[in-house]
Amino acid sequence: MAFSSDTMASRVTQRLLHRMVTVSITLFGLLALTFMIGRVMPIDPVLTVVGPDADSSTYEQVYQEMGLDQPLLVQFGIYLQDLAHGDLGNALLTGKPVLDDIIRVFPATLELATVAIIFGIVIGIPMGVYAATQKGRLTDHIIRVISLFGYSTPVFWVGMMGLLIFYAWLNWVGGSGRVGLAYEGLVEPVTGMILIDSIIARDWEVLASALNHVVLPAFILGLNSVSFIARMTRSFMLEQLSQEYILTARVKGLPERTVIWRHAFRNILVQLLTIVALAYGSLLEGAVLIETVFAWPGFGQYLTSSMMLGDMNAVMASVLLIGLMFVTLNLVTDMLYPIFDPRTR
């Protein structure tokens, strides 16, 4: 028995080491590629600092202070050395440390993406399951068309139409921003996510305003996830419904609801977990258009503005964060596999 425990511990250790090496190589590759692309972009970060009217001596001084006179490999090495000490540099956009900027803007995107993925799960999974049970029928075709529409329609256009219809015309939801102007700054930022912060502060008026403002952008952002999750759920369910154990369950006289949800659906949970993790990661990194339309002060806007200015400190830190997000989601997904499917233990 001791040998079995030692063997299991050895396998777990090897797996963790393998993951750490893979993660390190992946993040290093992301940083190296982003750094090299940033240095060949036709944007001069020095001009962003000194302005277009600066004289040549000032330009040259700032150029050297930023280390741009060094070879690319030397510049990258200096960046890695600073990164190892927790220094991500200062942002040209705000003049503050990049880490402080990311800590400030990321919770807004995390909040928006989390509400969006909840919409994706709550709506997309039942749609996919029902479409699979109605294969070839009118309902199945309607759900597939809706999924195609949600997946292919430009999100910024849907966002503008949503604001026009549900805010300007019907006044059902809040407009731009995270809360109404009257509630700005009333809740102390503890987590940076205003829904949670308002609950902590027990300020229900701010919570109501925040919910009123987040529901439309989150739903529109989640449309893509709804479509993706619905299509993949339908595909997974069709595969399971064609298996012999489903036929056996039906022959035994089990209720159709039991056959669908307790047998077929349980066998696609691991696959769905992977799909949801991928969708969530995409929402976290791809919310820039919705944030722009709804004036949502999040990570996407920060990254886009930094790219336009050629602010490589902010861009590199943002790319690193995106890489860490996907790596973390993959690790969490792997840890959850044994819970949903004991066979993976």
Automatic annotation (TrEMBL):
Keywords attached to this entry: Cell membrane, Membrane, Transmembrane, Transmembrane helix, Transport
Top-rank taxon, per record: Bacteria
GO molecular function, one term: dipeptide transmembrane transporter activity
Transmembrane segments: 21-41, 112-133, 145-170, 210-230, 272-296, 316-340
Major localization listed first in the record, in broad terms: membrane
Ranges of residues in domain ABC transporter type 1 GsiC-like N-terminal: 15-112
PANTHER family xref list: D,D-DIPEPTIDE TRANSPORT SYSTEM PERMEASE PROTEIN DDPB-RELATED (PTHR43163:SF8), DIPEPTIDE TRANSPORT SYSTEM PERMEASE PROTEIN DPPB-RELATED (PTHR43163)
Protein name: ABC transporter permease
Species assigned in the record: Terasakiispira papahanaumokuakeensis
